[in-house]
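Hey, I was hoping to borrow your eyes for a little while. I've been staring at a protein lately and its backbone has me curious. You're getting the sequence in one-letter code plus the fold written as tokens. Would you mind checking whether the tokens look sensible for this chain? Here's the protein in full, and shout if anything looks odd to you:
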Amino acid sequence: MANSGDDYSLSRVPMDARRPMWEVLVIRIGSLACVSQLMLGAALGFGMTFWGAFWATMCGSVLLQVVSWAIGAAAANEGLSTSLLSRWSGFGKMGSAIIGGVIAVSLMGWFGVQNSVFAEGLYKATGIFNTPIWAIITGMGITLIVVFGFKVLSATADIFVPLFIAAVLFAAYHMLSGQNLGALIHSAAPGPALSFGVATTMVAGGFMIGAVTTPDTSRFLKNGKEVFWMTLIGTFVGELGMNLIAVLMAHAVGTSNVVDIMLSLTGWLGAAIVIFSTVKLNDINLYSSSLGITTMINALFNVKISRTKATWVIGIIGTFLSMIGIINYFQSFLTLLGVAIPPVAGIIVIDYYVLKRNRQELDQTRAMEKLPQECEKWNPITIIAWIVSFLVGYLVKDFGIPAINSLLTAAILYFVGMKAYGAYTKQENVQFAKTDQIL
């Protein structure tokens, strides 16, 4: 019961606690179908034809789909969150602490940024209180949802995802009424041309953190097949659907400021779009952040901190930063942290699916729904591959997609490095110093 109430933050999710696929799917759609997705679609539509934006979205989405499925299926097999899975997939105990910390700080920051948008939208719609007071109300409201864990997260998504989609469709209907859809689909881009490569980068990079943290929700699914359908349907509805609606609206009004126009249609409709979008997106930010921080503290101090307590702490800090307005000055730092997250997926996928260094221990303990009795303290090759791939993602801007560049660099460097070290030390299955203090 203690594990259940804490959402198995430091243990496997047992099979009898797994949830129906549609519950996780709705959460997934909610993380994709949001105001920022509409802004992305409008930017594509302003600089591209409808079909150009369609294929850019498809290519970017395929990349996200592959990453999400690969790492999400591993999590469903093992019942582990991203940061905990990494402990037996290349990073070791100390490496998992770094992952947990990066994810926690990054998503706590975005929680604060989104909360600022949430509060400002409600203040403009209602005209009562002020933005800081609304920031306290909205921040603590989201925190309360996340405190109760996955089940309440799911229930919230069941309510707010359909409402958000309905509000967007209603606004789109008003903006597109009287327009010839056939002409819009075949019309030229209203703004300066946007290249296919840049557009694909925008699509893939925009949700890469969400792809890497897929295990935080997919661990509640029963198998990889369910993960495949969850990510596929979620991508088509949340990513492709929202993008193409925004593309058409950008063509119809001849501007990329589609969201501003939608929010100005009516005060309460605009407020509804902001509310429905932010609630279902920001609770996921806070949820993954709470899982990351519990893993980090456990790895560093051998202490089991309650995910519930971690949620309150992170929620209060994020709310306070958004209340005083300082969080918006950290967006460049949060973007920098985001570059460090894609390589995590590359290393986990290579270690779990290709090298399979700890698969025997994971397989033996899976049936008992326990964790292996030991894990590596840390893996120096992982750290080197991670640092180099981070620099590649951060510095290489003119070639390929930065998020994918860093992910592939990490995967290749890690594989080559492990094989070379194995040949040098004559180890078929490379292992570094281990500890039995797994928690």
Remarks:
- Residues 2-344 form a domain with the Hydantoin permease fold (CATH 1.10.4160.10).
- The chain has a mean pLDDT of 89.
